[in-house]
Specification:
It is a single chain. With about 300 residues, the chain is mainly alpha-helical. It contains eleven helices and no strands. The longest helix is centred in the middle third of the chain and has 38 residues. The protein is globular, with a radius of gyration of 20 Å.
Length: about 300
């Protein structure tokens, strides 16, 4: 699979990057402005969001996709939006199903590892597995994740569909490293309005939550990129992102002592146990070459050649 952007003139690529980031960031701040103006603060990790908060979050999550579509259509004029942003199903269908399943399994495994690390460190208040209600909780978590998928398309069409390929430029090693770091940092800083309101790290000041978010996003982004690279589609990355932001957070609450306080900085994928789990997996992907687009071109070339033979 490729991240084909080499045919774009350099001036168009640079202009597109600035326009994309500007629109994505302005859209985020505009969407969050009602909450910022009202002085909203999230003080507890168990606190549920209200209707206004949900509406603002939904609007914000659509901003990167709208920015990417605007740039592809009006700045780059680089072809069909669906093809340019990898908004397609992997073929054959069996491969697509495996790619989507992997987008469930890997984040679930990383979250389980993070909870185990936090438990052994004495910082995650593990309350045991309640087998009687586990099936109902799991069904509800999956349903909630599927319902929220359109919103995560709003994010990943921007980060994985547009920004990462423009920075990676296919094969240059330095460009790839820059692409992972810059995309992860842009992804993290984009969350600044929610971080100021205690969204991901309730009760923590910005000078703690912002660096924590930078670490989290820089480590988890290669996992989403790997899902995108191995499938040739942003759809598995969307599923993986949805799991980490919804079902993974639900796992932290479900398996914790219901009376205990929860601190995301010390548990789950957003905290240092998650950084260890994600960092170990990213190290494996790096050492085996799975974070390089060329790894997948080499694997798919023989298959493509065989399908073209008479």
């Amino acid at each position: 699979m490729t991240l084909s952007t080499g045919s774009l003139p350099l001036v168009n690529r640079r202009r597109g990057l600035f326009v994309f980031l500007g629109v994505a960031y302005i859209g985020m701040w505009a969407a969050m402005s009602p909450l910022l103006a009202s002085g909203y603060r999230r003080g507890n990790a168990r606190e549920e969001t209200g209707a206004l908060e949900e509406a603002c979050i939904a609007a914000a999550m659509l901003a990167p996709a709208l920015a990417a579509i605007l740039v592809v259509r009006c700045v780059e004029r680089s072809g069909r939006v669906r093809d340019t942003l990898a908004l397609r199903w992997t073929k054959p269908w069996g491969r697509a199903a495996r790619a989507c399943l992997m987008a469930f399994v890997v984040p679930a495994g990383l979250t389980t590892a993070a909870l185990a690390i936090g438990t052994f460190a004495g910082l995650y208040p593990f309350g045991g597995v309640h087998w009687n209600g586990l099936g109902a909780w799991l069904a509800g978590a999956v349903l909630n994740m599927l319902v929220s998928l359109p919103l995560f398309f709003g994010e990943e069409l921007g980060w994985q569909g547009y920004l990462f390929p423009r920075l990676a430029q296919d094969s240059d090693r330095r460009s790839l490293i820059r692409a992972y770091v810059v995309t992860g940092a842009a992804f993290a800083v984009w969350h600044l309005p929610t971080l100021l309101m205690g969204g991901q790290y309730p009760g923590r000041p910005w000078y703690v939550s912002v660096p924590a978010m930078l670490v989290s996003c820089t480590l988890i982004l290669p996992v989403f990129t790997w899902l995108r690279l191995r499938s040739g589609s942003v759809i598995p990355a969307v599923i993986g992102h949805a799991f980490v932001s919804s079902a993974s957070v639900g796992m932290v609450k479900e398996f914790a002592d219901p009376q205990a306080a929860l601190d995301p900085l010390h548990m789950g994928m957003a905290g240092w146990p998650g950084w260890i789990a994600a960092g170990a997996f990213v190290a494996f992907l790096t050492l085996t070459g799975r974070l390089q687009p060329s790894f997948y071109r080499a694997r798919t070339a023989p298959h493509l050649a065989s399908t073209r033979r008479p």
